Description:
By secondary structure, the chain is an alpha/beta fold. The protein folds into three domains: about 1-65, Multidrug-efflux Transporter Regulator, Chain: A, Domain 2; about 80-160, Methionine synthase domain (Methyltransferase, Methionine Synthase (B12-binding Domains), Chain A, domain 1); about 170-280, Rossmann fold, CATH 3.40.50. Helices cover about 60% and strands about 10% of the residues. The protein has 14 helices and seven strands. It has helices at about 10-15, 20-30, 45-60, 65-80, 85-95, 100-115, 115-135, 145-160, 185-195, 210-220, 230-235, 240-245, 260-265, 275-280; strands at about 35, 40-45, 170-175, 200-205, 225, 250-255, 270. The strands form two sheets. The chain has a five-stranded parallel β-sheet with strand order 4-3-5-6-7, sandwiched between helices. Strands 1-2 form a two-stranded antiparallel sheet. The longest helix has 21 residues, at about 115-135. The protein is elongated and about 65 Å long.
Amino acid sequence: MADATLRIGELARRCGVSTELLRAWERRYALLTPARTSGGYRLYDADDETRVRAMQAHLAQGLAAAQAARLARQATATAPENNAPADLPAALWSALERFDDAGAQAAFDRLIATFGIQTVATTAILPYLRTLGERWNDADASIAQEHFATGLLRARLLGLARGWDRGTGPRALLACPPGEHHDLGLIILGLALRDRGWRVTFLGPDTPIETLAAAADQLAPDVVVLSSLAREPLLAAATEIAQMAASRTVLLAGPGADAELAERSRARLLAGNPIEAADEVSA
């Protein structure tokens, strides 16, 4: 958190809003997180100002106040220091929420042109997907929103992946188990491995284990990575995975993977987000 030095009047002046509106946003949406002086006065910091400006931008684009506040909070909650400024991820998220294909494509272009894929993934794509998943669980996101956002992001990420099997580095064979159709995290893992000198062969979602094993026999990869958002697909395939792991290195990744599943499958668990998993594979 940045140093809190702004009184609410100064924050209101900088952002061109009333102090009453700032108090309402703080009370209703937890948009602001002030520190308190020994005398009980609220002091605000640069992150608070960033969230207010992001909130204003989302409202100007037609989002409902609660939705605008959620995206504005997420911007500073997930953007590490010296990474993408909050307004750049916020522009992408806002366009995805509005089914604005052209706007989302342009925002993605700006992010990639300014930052590397790993920064874009950790500050924009993964936080948005996590928020979208939470909203899905709360029945606050529609099937249409999920399909539009994941379809657009998947296409752009695979566009960045062209030629990721070139070179002479170690090879990773990547797939999702049968029944798992969400592979965005696996694509990001592949891109991060490519940046670390690996060659990547990507089989994608809903891959039969026998198909994966046959590809592994043909390619002799250094590692096979199975990623799943849900636990059930990995559990259902545990016996087949164990058979494959008897002759080669198999890694389990994604939110659906855990230590018990890895032990049952004779595999190794990759913890953390896709960027952290790529570091672990490379190590």
